[in-house]
Amino acid sequence: MVDRHQVMSFRVRAQQLDRSEGTLADTAILDIGVQNTGPDGARWALAARGVDVTALSDEHVVLLWTVRGAPHLYRRADVGAVAAAAAVEPFSDADAGKRIYDASKPLKAAGIGNLAALDEVADRMRAIVTAPTVKGEVSGRLATMLPDPYLRFCRPCDATHVYEMPFRLAAVRAGLELDLDTSPPVLRRITGFRKAAVVNDRFDLVRAYLRLLGPATPKQVADYLDAPSKDVKALWPDDVVEVTVDGEVRSLLAADEEALESADGTGTRLLGPYDLFLQAKDRATLVPDASRAKELWPVLGRPGAVLVDGELVGAWRPRKSGRTFTVAVQPWQRLSDAARKAITAQAELLAAHRSVTLTGVDFAS
Description:
Helix content is 35%, strand content 21%. It is α+β, with helices and mostly antiparallel strands. It has 2 domains: 21-189, no CATH class; 268-363, Aminopeptidase (3-Layer(aba) Sandwich), CATH 3.40.630. Strand 12 and strand 13 (311-321) form a beta hairpin.
């Protein structure tokens, strides 16, 4: 029997949220990918784990559309291994169909396999992107090159586009990356791109999830990947142990059993809305109070989360006006003076990260 505090502390340690210094080479979450959504995305997630991101450039990292079609940051040296993993390489045709959502239906009706469709889109994309090209231009040219089963009519644009998820999931198959800090996104070819022949255990997303977000069930991993549970179960590692969390039997890599039993995550962090710590699919473990969970994961406009010594103790939102910056904190419990001081210190780091002036931290009563 494992209590939720052990699970939370294990993840703090596994994700290195308790350290003050680190490098890209030794930052574990780069193995699974660091989602880059919003102003407090991948760079802030790395900074929260002690990485100096002031000089971070595309010489060191690569931005790819991978898990759930979202942009994720990886080490550039790992791009071939990442391309071979389930982040961009579906487990099966059924898995590919689940990941591309409604785009699968017209393909099936036309007798086109989902994996074959991704390869077709990838081939066309690579032919188009011979130099850095804005996403809209790539999409527009694809729409003139692909037959109807690949296309949809977009009412807001009053135009026909390629379905979004096949477009995103085909990009790495085409050997394409996203330029850092471009909006709208700019795609370009990955220099010297070559997909690894086999999946390295380090980048196997089932194992990476268990290592960083375990203990977990196959369904939780499948939900994270948008993959069918059947495919995840078929690839479930043999070197796992079973533990019970909140009455539910879950798996943990056997090598991490001792770390789970002795975990004691400490430290205070302002986690960005899409930080990996908040991406775990056992939300009731992260936040047992359903009303608090609803506050942290609304349908639109997620706040960040306040992490103190292995517990999520509140939500936070940025309040920016010009070059001044306030952090509004909504505590879920009484915070000690020490915790408030640590949160304020984190807010100062966030303001410096954003190159703005912190005018204060507003703790709601």
